[in-house]
Each structure stands twice: as structure tokens, then as C-alpha cells.
Amino acid sequence: xxxxxxxxxxxxxxxxxxxxxxxxxxxxxxxxxxxxxxxxxxxxxxxxxxxxxxxxxxxxxxxxxxxxxxxxxxxxxxxxxxxxxxxxxxxxxxxxxxxxxxxxxxxxxxxxxxxxxxxxxxxxxxxxxxxxxxxxxxxxxxxxxxxxxxxxxxxxxxxxxxxxxxxxxxxxxxxxxxxxxxxxxxxxxxxxxxxxxxxxxxxxxxxxxxxxxxxxxxxxxxxxxxxxxxxxxxxxxxxx
Length: 240
Prior knowledge:
The protein is α+β, with helices and mostly antiparallel strands. The protein has helices spanning about 15-25, 25-30, 80-85, 85-95, 145-160, 185-195, 200-210, and strands at about 1-10, 35-45, 55-65, 95-110, 130-140, 165-175, 175-185, 215-230. The longest helix has 16 residues, at about 145-160.
């Protein structure tokens, strides 16, 4: 099993079509027999849980039944190969910039829409190379104020943490269904941030004690390959 996350950036004049794609692209993804799970998502502006959407930037996350041939993937054809002809033509028509990361899930817990889309995962492995982290949650309506009051400070701290490479805020639904995808030099760097930064540990404790989430998931991946750019650069160039 391999997982892909593609971040798509539309030119400003095509923002309406980015919104339209959130509806139109569901059918071809649902019909794609090589995709067992997918999510179409918006992106936040500041690289993590964020109330402020970036209307130009969107994402597709998909679980593929057959692993893509990494050697055959090329920026000009990757969207078509991974997501089908309709979506590939759409991206070319609207001159979208795309950045795709190929991932192999290794560790995790929790659920997404009452599913385990990445299969049964170990809680811990011996792997300690570059690692990508997906943290997602469905926030209880009664806890929205508490959640958004606490997460902004942690986001600022993460950007300056040792071993941090990049992060992207993604979500299926504004305010309520949110996720952060981040990449680190190794698991140890991520653990140092997650468990030794006071602000972060306080937030983790509050989520459990105050029961902020109706559903959550935490997954670690091995980042295998990146293709394309976002805002003109590949955030993982030379890192894998």
C-alpha cells in the first residue's frame, strides 16, 4: 500500500474552479478502482491547524491499492497516473502547480470516518529516518472555542523546532475537520517537539481531559519521493 498527498495551487483568477473541483472530483476518485480511500481538502494559510483558508491551495490524499512505479512518475503525467485522466486534464486546463509526496504508512492509531484507511499499523517501529506525520481530528462543536484558542501558539513553536522541515494545514471541513501534515528529519526530532515542548504537552493533556475530539487519527509515514513544486519549490528537495 502507498499513500499520496498532492497539494494543488491554482492561479488567483481560477479560485472559483478550485472550489468547484471539491465537488466535481469526488466522482472520478470514487470510480477509480485503484483508490480505496480518498479525501479532497482545503488548506490553511499558516502550515498547520488554521481558521484562515488559503483559497488558492487545495489537497488530495489517496490510498492506492497498487503501488505506483516511482521510476515512471514525472511532473507532466503524475496527476493523471495517480488520480485519473479527468483530474489530470483539469489541472493542466487551469494551469495548476502541484506538489506530490509518495508515502508508506508505518505507525499509527485512531480512525478516519470510522475507518482505518492505512490498514492495521504498529504503534512503534525501529525506523528513524525522515518521517512524515499526519494528525487529524473531528472537533466537537462544544469544544471549538477551546481548540482554536489553544492551537495557534503550538503552530508557531513547531515552525522553529529543531529537525522540522515543512508542514501543511489541510482539512475536509472548515473549523471542524482539521489536519496537519508535517515532515521531520527523524522521529527523534518530532518526539522532542511533541513531548518536551511545554505548550504542546499542555494542549495534548487538554484534548484528553476535556474530550475535544469525537474522532482522531495519528499516523507516521516514510516519505519515499516527491514530484513537482509548491510556490516554486520542493520543500523536501535534497531531504530524502
